[in-house]
Design brief:
Number of helices: 15
Number of domains: 2
Mean pLDDT: 90
Radius of gyration: 28 Å
Strand order of the largest sheet: 1-2
Distance between the termini: 55 Å
Helix content: 55-70%
Oligomer: single chain
Low-confidence stretches: none
Largest sheet: 2 strands, antiparallel
CATH class of the largest domain: Mainly Alpha
CATH topology of the largest domain: Hypothetical protein af1432
Number of strands: 2
Structural class: mainly alpha
Length: about 350
């Protein structure tokens, strides 16, 4: 849709245009005030006042021939008419949504007054988003509204590009999410399997603790990314048995990360995760100090989580002692002696005094 040029509005006296705009700004400010009041408690009188403020914005636009603006605001008015009639139960997310809509409309009105043009596509997209909210089922309407808010903020107006973070209940956009947010989202899809989720928690917790003890530690987000991508190719058998880390996983995870700017360290942590301290590992047969200390941390943490998950019938301390024994047997072959010492200290000071998984 092309820019809107409203000749009838442009022919109005500048003072009339400004008076109209000032009245709209006042009504929009009232919408904001009502939303703030509704954050404290839901009050029918405030909802009615908010409905009237939205109606005022629509009515003023109608008086100065701004049909496209009227259509957009009318959709919002319909939504709050349903809330006022209690057909839709008020939720604070609807207030935040209303603020986002009226603020965008105010920006377009300001643009129209200053340049005699407004973005018709933005107004049409606003209408479509409000339709999405109204057409959503009762159980999905709040989530749909959260997505709509983010879609407007990011400027792409596409609900399909927004997902909900199931842990925090917050929405974020694929177009605006940081890399690590996107990685964690991918990871959470996989972690719908409870075995994967438990494995990830055990592995990540130990890896961060051990990494913090290194004199040459990796950035925490690089560690997290390495673990997420290594786990992407990990399989869980129908009986709940998880696969042990292997060279193919390391190569695939490293290959994926190396193709993305800023994740070279995580890629290197992955490719070295099957290297052994004594040089017997793969794929590069690195030895001793040639292996990144943080990569050894990642591989040991995977080993630890794998051993714990592999003993589901043992109680906490039995599983812990069995796993520590297995890992200590790999000292100076799979892992560097100093890393094993640090691992043992963490187990004694934290894992024996608290149930960590």
């Amino acid at each position: 849709m092309s820019d809107i040029v409203c000749e009838a509005f442009s022919e109005l006296n500048k003072e009339v245009q400004q008076e109209f705009y000032d009245d709209v700004v006042t009504a929009i400010a009232d919408v904001n005030d009502c939303v703030s009041a509704l954050e404290e408690s839901v009050d029918e009188g405030v909802i009615d006042r908010m409905f009237r403020a939205i109606h005022t914005v629509k009515g003023n636009c109608n008086m100065v021939f701004l049909v496209d603006f009227v259509n957009s605001v009318h959709r919002l008015e319909d939504l709050f008419s349903a809330i006022k009639a209690k057909t839709i139960s008020y939720n604070s997310v609807y207030g935040r949504f209303a603020i986002q809509v009226v603020n965008l409309i105010q920006l377009q009105l300001k643009e129209l007054i200053e340049t005699s043009r407004a973005d018709g596509e933005t107004l049409e997209n606003i209408k479509l988003l409000i339709d999405h909210v109204q057409d959503a089922s009762d159980s999905e309407r709040v989530n749909t509204t959260q997505k709509a808010i983010i879609a407007m903020k990011d400027g792409h107006f596409s609900i399909g590009l927004v997902v909900l973070n199931s842990d925090g209940g917050h929405a974020f956009s694929f177009m605006d999410a940081t890399d690590i947010e996107f990685f964690e989202f991918i990871s959470k899809i996989q972690q719908q399997n409870p075995v994967h989720q438990k494995f990830a928690n055990i592995c990540s917790t130990l890896a961060i603790k051990l990494n913090n003890l290194l004199s040459n530690s990796a950035e925490e987000q690089q560690i997290q990314a390495a673990i997420i991508f290594l786990q992407l190719t990990q399989t869980v058998q129908p009986e709940g048995v998880i696969s042990e880390l292997n060279t193919q996983q390391c190569i695939i995870a490293s290959g994926l990360l190396s193709r993305m700017s800023g994740w070279g360290e995580a890629a290197e942590l992955c490719i070295q995760a099957m290297e052994n301290h004594d040089g017997s590992g793969a794929p590069k047969s690195l030895q001793g100090g040639d292996i990144l200390p943080a990569s050894q941390v990642v591989s040991l943490s995977f080993d630890f989580a794998y051993q714990i998950i592999s003993h589901p019938t043992l109680d906490y301390k039995q599983a812990l002692f069995t796993t520590v024994k297995v890992i200590n047997a790999k000292k100076n072959s799979r892992y560097k002696d100093k890393l094993i010492q640090r691992f043992n200290n963490v187990i004694k000071t934290e894992y024996l005094t608290n149930q960590m998984f």
